[in-house]
Amino acid sequence: MRVTISRKAHFNAAHRLYRKDWTFEQNDAVFGKCNNPNFHGHNYDLIVSVTGQVNQETGFVMDVKILSDIIREEVESQFDHKNLNLDVPEFKNLNPTAENIVVVIWNKIRKRIKSEFDLEVVLYETPRNFVTYKGE
């Protein structure tokens, strides 16, 4: 019996979408107001889902408290109230688009979740704009 458990989390972060190898005009044409040299911010919501067999002894797929701790350590403590471009090493040379952010988060959490479990991460940049990543 495979079941999916999910945990919702939240963090606030600033970023700027741009490519260092493009002119300001090229960046502005592609990224618009998200190319603001002074950055801009979002109130991100995150849903992390783990799917696996229910443990017959515990009745859990995995302990949600453990999942909560992983999210806090790998995402919230490293991203919350940070400038993603300047403060998060993974974005030193990676444009912090929602697509890239969700993949970075998935990779950080994946290394802490047993391989027999499937992992899905949904990242809401705004209430209407969100991305989903389930791995390759």
Architecture blueprint of SSEs:
Layout: E1 2-15, H1 24-31, E2 40-53, H2 64-79, E3 82-83, H3 84-87, H4 98-110, E4 118-124, E5 130-133
Parallel strand pairs: 1-3
Antiparallel strand pairs: 1-2, 2-4, 4-5
Describe the structure.
This protein has one domain (2-133): Tetrahydropterin Synthase, Chain A, CATH 3.30.479. The protein is built from 4 helices and 5 strands. Strand 4 (118-124) and strand 5 form a beta hairpin. With 136 residues, the chain is an alpha+beta fold.
Q: Within the CATH hierarchy, at the fold level, what is the topology? A: Tetrahydropterin Synthase, Chain A
Number of domains: 1
The sequence of SSEs as H and E is: EHEHEHHEE
CATH superfamily: 6-pyruvoyl tetrahydropterin synthase/QueD
Give the mean pLDDT: 97
Morphology call: elongated
